[in-house]
Amino acid sequence: MDELFQLRIIATNKSFYEGKAKSLVIPTSTGERGILAHHAGMMCAINMGELRFQTDGGEWRSILVGAGSMSVNNNQVLVLVDTVETLEEIDIERAEQAIVRAQERMRQKQSQRQYMMSQAAMARALSRLKYKDKNN
Asked: Among candidates 46, 42, 30, which has minimal Cα distance to 71?
């Protein structure tokens, strides 16, 4: 029997997954980080990108997550992120429109805060397009 750990994935607006898992791969600032059963205790920042996990039934699931954090302790993994989106929830046309809007806002004179918010909006939209393209 495969070694399992308890996994919870929670976004600000919903609890996405709670159950046993065989493996977890998260996006970080230095690349991807993998977690298996009985991993040493740790905390880690999560970057926007693709998160993959293998359920206890062996099925690999892939989701797009926003920034967040992960903690591993006593064979339990808690993932807290801003957003969780499945492939089916991503609208390519809407993401492309968001990029155009963000580019237009970035061309306008605005405060540093507004500029950074426009950059973040563009990064989210680009991440959606990259994830959708990779998984189609």
From this structure: 42
Return the CATH superfamily for domain 5-85: F0F1 ATP synthase delta/epsilon subunit, N-terminal (2.60.15.10)
Task: Supply the pTM of this predicted model.
Answer: 0.84
Cα 86 from Cα 78, distance rounded (Å): 19
CA distance 113 to 107: 14
Angle at 13 between CA 59 and CA 94, to 5 degrees: 80
> Tell me: the pLDDT tens digits for 52-91?
999 999 999 999 999 999 999 999 999 999 999 998 888 8
Q: Look at residues 32, 35, 26 and name the one whose alpha carbon lies nearest to residue 72.
A: 35
